[in-house]
């Protein structure tokens, strides 16, 4: 009897959460509308509507809305969704609640590689920066897992996270030193932590295909990820090809994280917080977690950017969205690390 009662519960949960997708899309539209209205230059709703549906390139407000605010809002949604999906996949594959692109060195590795690419090939275009970012994300992840595996006692979630923080700090410091030494200027410095400031339609067009491929790939991988979360031995006993699934998941994570950094610089903690919050709300079935993480991640970063812009407005100084995500993410990370360490009952890091 208990077994027969469990299946309707799971099915009803999946059905219930899929009905939230239209609500999430509506929230996205409302969020974009709010984003277009707020900022250091206030624009009324009527002008915003005209800028979208009766665009006049001779009017400054129309250009501001359509060519600057709208692509930035869409980039927030794409970057937030990409990082949330990447974090959810990493946490599922590694069974590590502290895994995320920012913590595991992917974001900083991608940023570092992009800086090196600009130094060595000043005329490199957007596609070249995207390739460099993905390669850098791969380097960052390899360093974290390689160094972490050298420690006595093997890879534990907390030790891996601490290694990730150390590698991120090292790569970030080297990247800053390279920018100063080669006098790369304020533009690249601002890009390094800019978030989606100054994102244009070309950036959106570059990220959109990667996000679409990553989303479709993650959804196709979702059933296997749900089984992997139970343990690799369990997955193998159920006939899952675990190595192939991990390889596909790793490629998706690197593509989404690298693409996000190439467009928006290093935006931390989205991939850590959002998957945890989603799982608390919808459970652990990756068929539901991944699309909900995409919706929630996009909304989260859009809301964080709105907060950053409201904080910017009175002082006319740009506040990067990464500042807002860090203010929320650092306490969340410490909470997860302390809870994980306490659950280990005094085990060594």
TrEMBL record:
The chain crosses the membrane at residues 20-38, 73-90, 102-121, 128-148, 160-184, 205-231, 251-276, 288-311, 317-337. Pfam families: FecCD. GO terms for molecular function: transmembrane transporter activity. GO terms for biological process: siderophore-iron import into cell. It is a multi-pass membrane protein. Belongs to the binding-protein-dependent transport system permease family. FecCD subfamily. It comes from Aeoliella mucimassa. Keywords: Cell membrane, Membrane, Transmembrane, Transmembrane helix, Transport. GO terms for cellular component: plasma membrane. SUPFAM superfamilies: ABC transporter involved in vitamin B12 uptake, BtuC. This is Iron-uptake system permease protein FeuB. InterPro entries: ABC_BtuC-like, ABC_transptr_permease_BtuC. It is found in: Cell membrane.
């Amino acid at each position: 009897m208990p077994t027969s009662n469990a299946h309707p519960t799971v099915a009803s949960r999946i059905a219930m959460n899929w009905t939230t997708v239209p609500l999430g899309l509506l929230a996205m539209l409302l969020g974009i509308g709010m984003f277009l209205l707020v900022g250091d230059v206030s624009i009324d709703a009527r002008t915003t509507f005209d800028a979208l549906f009766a665009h006049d390139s001779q009017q400054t407000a129309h250009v501001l809305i359509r060519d600057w605010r709208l692509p930035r809002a869409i980039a927030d949604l794409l970057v937030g969704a990409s990082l949330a999906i990447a974090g959810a996949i990493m946490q599922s594959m590694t069974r590590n609640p502290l895994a995320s692109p920012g913590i595991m060195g992917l974001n900083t590795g991608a940023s570092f590689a992009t800086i090196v690419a600009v130094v060595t090939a000043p005329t490199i275009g957007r596609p070249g920066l995207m390739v460099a970012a993905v390669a850098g994300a791969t380097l960052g992840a390899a360093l974290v897992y390689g160094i972490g595996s050298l420690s006595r006692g093997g890879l534990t979630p907390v030790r891996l996270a601490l290694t990730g923080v150390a590698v991120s700090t090292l790569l970030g410091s080297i990247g800053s030193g390279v920018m100063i030494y080669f006098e790369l200027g304020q533009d690249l410095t601002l890009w390094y932590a800019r978030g989606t400031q100054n994102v244009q339609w070309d950036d959106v067009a570059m990220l959109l295909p990667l996000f679409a491929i990553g989303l479709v790939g993650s959804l196709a991988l979702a059933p296997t990820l749900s089984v992997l979360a139970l343990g690799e031995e369990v997955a193998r006993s159920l006939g899952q090809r675990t190595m192939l699934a991990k390889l596909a998941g790793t490629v998706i994570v690197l593509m989404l994280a690298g693409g996000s950094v190439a467009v928006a610089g290093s935006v931390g903690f989205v991939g850590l917080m959002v998957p945890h919050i989603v799982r608390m709300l919808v459970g652990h079935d990756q068929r539901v977690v991944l699309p909900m993480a995409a919706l929630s991640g996009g909304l989260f970063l859009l809301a964080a950017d709105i907060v950053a812009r409201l904080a910017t407005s009175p002082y006319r100084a740009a506040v990067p969205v990464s500042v807002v995500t860090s203010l929320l993410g650092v306490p969340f990370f410490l909470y997860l690390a302390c809870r994980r360490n306490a659950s280990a009952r005094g085990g060594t890091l």
